[in-house]
Amino acid sequence: MTTPTEIDGRALILAPQGRDAVIAAALLRQWGTESIICGDLTHVSKLLGDEIGCAVMTEEALRDADLGAVSAWVARQPPWSDFPFIVLTQRGGLSDRIADARRLCEALGNVIFLERPFHPMTFVSVIQNARRGRYRQYEARSRMEELQESQARLRRLNETLEAKVAERTAQLERAHEAVLEEMRQRERTEEALRQVQKMEMIGQLTGGVAHDFNNLLMAVMGNLELLRKQASNERIVRLIDGALRGAQRGASLTQRLLAFTRQQDLRIEPTHLSYLVRGMMDLLERSVGASVELKFALPEDVPLTLADGNQIELAVLNLVVNARDAMPDGGAVSIAVDAVHSSKCADLEGGDYVRLTVSDTGHGMDPKTLSRATEPFFTTKEVGKGTGLGLSMIHGLALQLNGALRLSSAAGRGTQAELWLPVTSQALSVPATAEAESPGIEPAATARATILLVDDDALISTSTAYLLEDMGHEVIEVNSGADALSVLEQGRNVDLMITDYAMPKMTGAQLARAARELRPGLPILIATGYADLPQGMSMDIPRLRKPYQQKQLVAEIAKALYGARSNAVDERQQSPSG
Question: What is the model's pLDDT at position 383?
Fold first, then answer.
């Protein structure tokens, strides 16, 4: 028997054109993964086995190839095995040809399509995740064999029970039932673990893809803002505004993807739930379709609550989509906000609350289904149409906000979901602007500054530089951390440094630390398209989340320059010579 620790997880590479195979092998070797370059599909089929972690093949190598041998090997896999194949497609290639994609999926089974060109880190991440999944399969096999061994021991024990006296027989039967329950519990635990691992893999891949999309949207939004300022034709302005709204929706989509697959810190602030839901009306109407009627009861005089607006929007969207799915033939969904008082009970402290209610006229849930509705991964939808995480996420969000999620339903009478959140006496936050941040910020926001801009992506660097110059600043544009340090070492005047985080050789965090050693008081902004930065990065460095607009850039620069000026004044006042 091959154990997981005996598997080296080498990758098979089939890329017969050009130097693709050599480059891929070298890239994997840098990350500690050995590989075997294959000449054709026959070579691949002969090498498939326990010591192989995954296979990487290009679209062109498979286009006219006979997949019979590989397909037969895939079909012969034992139940625990699901060997991963990564197919490298060309832009506008296989992903646009549904029939070809279906052919590969039917022949190979577990297929991941990765469109070229891609970032090396994306490629390495996909390979590592595939190898990790293969490793988990072998672990699952080991566990299955252990279970089979336990079952065999139990069978041998049961064969001896007939020779036992009646009193001893009763004791052994109880022990036998306890072991069986332990096995059932282990199976349930392993199934939950597999689901968590699947979501972890999706989260890692989504994080990388969202980062790339955020970078692309950054360049698009920056250039559109500059074009809008120069456009004099009203029709062109409307077209640019439409493009900007589309880009902003794209940015919102990436944030929702990240929120769905990764745990993020809540940005809690005073929130007016009626205003929040009103801002979602268009999105909700598009989500439910024409066959579902939306009804709103959103009074203005409800009190505020402390919440993360983005997460509440996601919760409302999940509840409305669940209601829509419960009414395949159409119906009505009602969304209401009101103020209520609750005495102390099992799920709530006594006090005043704002209640957001989403109810539908769908088929409802029976008591058994209702009791499990908030369990992670529990879903009544067809396979592939639901993760079972929606209500679980909303339940967790409510608990984080010191509130509760209450569900009521009956078969044939629809479902009602209530999100209870505590009332706050805090006032609505004023949107941060360069003028409103502080009485002393306005000069810093409008004064001309020399800004060191560091980004290895030319599209983003150029777009951001134009935005900064349009604001009246002088820009020193470099494309690496080493070049940025060289500028600082030369003693050139720099009032602020804005750096990308994900750069080759030297990350933005490493650059920030080195720059602080050269110039301790230098204000620094780190721009990133990632949802979360790695652990260990100093959190006293402000982050500028991509994609951002010029008004956000103005506000963050104003805060950074104002903070630097305030610190300098404090140091002069505390100096003995002052």
Answer: 42
